[in-house]
Amino acid sequence: MKINTLSPQIHSRRDWLRQVQKIGLVTLSFCLNPISAFAKKADAALAIEKLTGSNSIQEGRVSLIIPPLVENGNLVVLKVSVESPMTEADYVKAIHVIAEGNPLPNIFSAYLTPRSGKAIVTTRVRLGDSQRVWAIAQMSDGSFWKGYADTLVTLSACTEMV
Questions:
Q1: Which helix (H) or strand (E) holds 23?
Q2: Which of 65, 76, 79, 123 maximizes the CB count within 10 A of its CB?
Q3: What is the domain extent for residue 52?
Q4: Per-residue pLDDT tens for 50-71?
């Protein structure tokens, strides 16, 4: 009778693969959970804090226009304008857009110079859920200004399975 010396190794390898598979399924179920994919208000606040540091943010000067009701969150038209003379002495350095309900709250940043002419940015963004969207303007004097808009998204983006 021939004894298979590889049997214990194969058995332990199978046990090891089963354990790895269980860990993988737990991790995969957490990653695919739509609730864990969305950012929280605290995540958006942290993103804003990283942009502004310890500087205070004033309300006004920033106008964010976004439809109040969006049928599909994949292509949402967004327009940000900032009241500024756009001169060498007083201009908008950057416009940052933060979405509270997206997996990554910082949607985009646009950097401007006095040669930009006007502080207006129009683009399309993806929104993961109904949420508040913030626009933060950084001025050349170091001040920060904010504006926001709320939108209701009926078909969410950012959570689709490919």
A1: helix 7-31
A2: 76
A3: 38-155
A4: 999 989 999 999 999 999 999 9
